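subagent[fold] <- orchestrator: predict structure for attached chain, return tokens only, no commentary.
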Amino acid sequence: MAEGEKGYETAYREAIEELKKGDPAKIADRSGARMEGDAILLEYLGRTFKIIPPHFDVRCEKGGERVPLKIQTIILHYLKDSRGTPLSGELIDFRGIPSGIFYHPVFQATVERPLLERFGEKPEKFIEAASKLGGVKAEFGDFSVTIPALPRVPVTIILYPGDDEFPPSCKVLFDSSIRDYLVTEDVRILCEEIVRELIRSAEG
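subagent[fold] -> orchestrator:
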């Protein structure tokens, strides 16, 4: 197992132990998920996942196949850390998240740069790919969408096409309540997965 995978394995196991201490129905309520029998059903990037207590095994609702460890960890961390805070309507960027300013260069390198490399000159492809993830048009220009990454974690991406004077640029924005749902590292990983899924959708 690679070093990064070991880190996910540890985080995954620790999240399960924390979730075992809680009431699944309350966990579902705080996170915006829903109960189906004894299972928690959670929407993540346009797909439904089933989380089954007491071991909190994460599977795709359709087909029942296992989910990559990184994605399982994001989902379990979201369930564990959700406080049920309503959306504030106040948008912040990554630097507005606790310690985000220190990790912003990494966020730029692993989220914004790949997004611009793939879609900076083809913003129409970005809109098309985002729609496959449940993205809906946002109010920030022709190439802005809000993707419901998790039930209470909308992610708004604004793409600014380049011109003769300026290169393409982008903004990634979150509702300020994200602080009550995911820690900073998980926000970065979630956004990396969003970009990966956008690129996969565009190439598919």
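orchestrator: received. Logging for downstream: The CA atoms of residues 32 and 149 lie 12 Å apart. The helical segments are 3-19, 24-31, 69-81, 100-119, 123-131, 184-203.
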